[in-house]
Specification:
The chain has 523 residues and is mainly alpha-helical. It has 22 helices and two strands. α10 packs parallel to α13.
Length: 523
């Protein structure tokens, strides 16, 4: 096959055309081109175009899921083409020779990335629907919104570390403008803090990718996995590169103490942006940590598993205790997200198949639950101008449907059986209890108690009790049609994964198969 051809290996056949993964990323970019030619005054048409092009990736992601083959090893729907070629010193030969190195455009998904592609496409579409009420600079908003969606989808769908970095940077730029322009009062400060923290994290990630490229002369994930075993890297070098990757993605996760950017960003970001920020973007950090840091350096990761468990506990308990004393619903959701991402770290720290599977399941389940919670926070803010409990008390009497969905979301977050959060938490905890870190598992059980405590407190203060005087006098509308769509879809997916977790776990198991051999060989 010529380098100029793009091959699709979805079912063993080769097609000389772009596959669905390229169209998945291109669809939002085509939407941007369409929006550019529309007059800014046509706000209804702009919203329709923005939502329509946000729906295309969701449809394509559904097709990928429906045709994915869990029994087939490795990446599927693979697309490869030579992007450019340059002359580079052959560091492996040690003789100072130079050689031509082709840099490939690579796309593909496996059981680790496909669930996150599906998550990003679904939450992105629902966030676009939730943006239908926005009136400020609508054209520019949807331009950056579609750019953000293209970046997140590309980051999860690519098999190239170089392309992952590029898509990651696209996400940072789009998020910066969405927070800085359409956020609340201190939006610019929050946007710059977001950019600085995540920019430093991406710098560490880039240094690690370049270091790896210098050792193996490839940006392709599969090739790196093969060649790293052949290229001699001293234990100290491996630990150093692992640390670069881990810290770079820990900022995005976010891991304590690199979490402060998230507090400010969520406080100031528009509701739809918060849906994507917590529902999707935090998973870029968890995905990168598992795919690159653990996937490339499993021995180093295994040796660092105790540290991962400690930091996971810190995230879990610090976020839970902080959520327990908050005075606003939105900040409870923010700290709850921080706490639940600690479960991802604990699942990775377990360093067994069940723990890894629980970590991935937690990424997906928390993504759906967090998107629903931040959507509801936006609905409350639109009606009351705040999510302070003092202003929301007793709203269950006036807004029964909105309050009911909040109760369902809170129960899902605290891990109620038959909901997605329960399945992911069971896998993480069982994975920990069957590892060498069972002591940390006992401590982590405190997180279950705290989660139940802060969500019951939050729901009670927000929806029960006497109505605030200003609330009693104010005419309020319950969930509208445009709000029912995201609410029902997210609730339906949360319940579906809780009732039928095999629909996801079978796919995830395929992606985790390459992680098993190196783990099994460890003492």
């Amino acid at each position: 096959m010529k380098h100029s051809e793009i091959a699709l290996f979805a079912t063993g056949r080769v097609q000389e055309e772009m596959g669905p993964l390229s169209w998945l990323v291109l669809a939002p970019l085509v939407g941007i081109l369409v929006l550019l030619v529309l007059p800014a005054s046509q706000t209804r048409l702009i919203k329709a175009v923005g939502i329509g092009f946000a729906a295309v990736p969701a449809v394509l992601a559904g097709y990928l899921y429906a045709t994915f083959r869990p029994a087939q090893e490795g990446f599927q729907f693979v697309e490869r083409a030579t992007w450019f070629t340059f002359v580079y010193p052959n560091a492996r030969s040690g003789s100072g020779t130079w050689q031509e190195v082709p840099i490939a455009y690579g796309m593909g998904v496996d059981g680790l990335s496909l669930p996150l592609v599906l998550l990003a496409a679904t939450v992105g579409f629902l966030a676009a629907v939730a943006s239908v009420g926005y009136t400020k600079r609508v054209k520019e908003y949807f331009l950056f919104f579609l750019l953000l969606q293209a970046g997140t989808l590309g980051a999860f769908a690519t098999t190239s570390t170089l392309l992952f970095f590029i898509f990651f940077e696209v996400v940072l730029v789009a998020s910066f403008f969405l927070i800085g322009v359409w956020g609340s009062e201190r939006r610019e400060e929050a946007a710059y803090q977001f950019l600085i923290y995540n920019g430093l994290g991406s710098l560490l990630m880039l240094l690690a990718f370049v270091w790896i490229f210098n050792a193996v002369l490839s940006f392709d994930v599969s090739e790196i996995g093969k060649r790293l075993g052949e290229a001699y890297l001293s234990p100290g070098t491996q630990a150093f590169v692992f640390a670069l990757l881990f810290l770079g993605f820990a900022v995005k996760l976010p891991m304590f103490p690199f979490h402060t950017w998230m507090l400010r960003a969520h406080t100031e970001a528009p509701p739809a942006m918060s849906m994507i920020l917590s529902g999707v973007l935090l998973k870029l950090g968890a995905y990168g940590m598992l795919r690159f840091a653990v996937g490339f350096f499993p021995e180093v990761a295994y040796q660092a598993s105790t540290f991962l468990a400690v930091m996971g506990l810190v995230n879990l308990l610090y976020g839970a205790f902080a959520a327990l004393v908050q005075k606003s619903l939105k900040m409870v959701i923010v700290y709850s997200s921080l706490s639940h991402m600690g479960l991802v770290l604990l699942g990775i720290a377990a360093f067994n198949t069940l723990g890894f599977q629980g970590a991935v399941f937690q990424m997906v389940s928390h993504g759906l639950i967090a998107a629903l919670l931040f959507f509801l926070a936006g609905a409350f803010t639109e009606r009351f101008g705040t999510t302070e409990f003092s202003a929301l008390g007793g709203i269950g009497k006036k807004l029964p449907y909105l309050s009911g969905v909040l109760l369902v979301a809170a129960m899902a977050s605290l891990g109620l059986p038959l909901m997605a959060g329960f399945v992911s938490e069971v896998q993480v905890y069982v994975g920990l209890f069957t590892s060498d870190l069972r002591t940390y598992a006992w401590i982590a059980l405190l997180g279950l108690v705290l989660t139940a405590a802060y969500w019951l407190r939050a729901v009670t203060q927000a929806t029960y009790g006497p109505l605030a005087p200003e609330t009693e006098r104010k005419p309020l509308s319950d969930l509208q049609f445009a709000e029912w769509v995201p609410a029902l879809v997210l609730v339906g997916l949360i319940v579906f994964l809780g009732v039928y977790p095999a629909s996801l776990s079978v796919v995830v198991a395929q992606g985790l198969a390459p992680f098993s051999p190196p783990v099994a060989l460890l003492p």
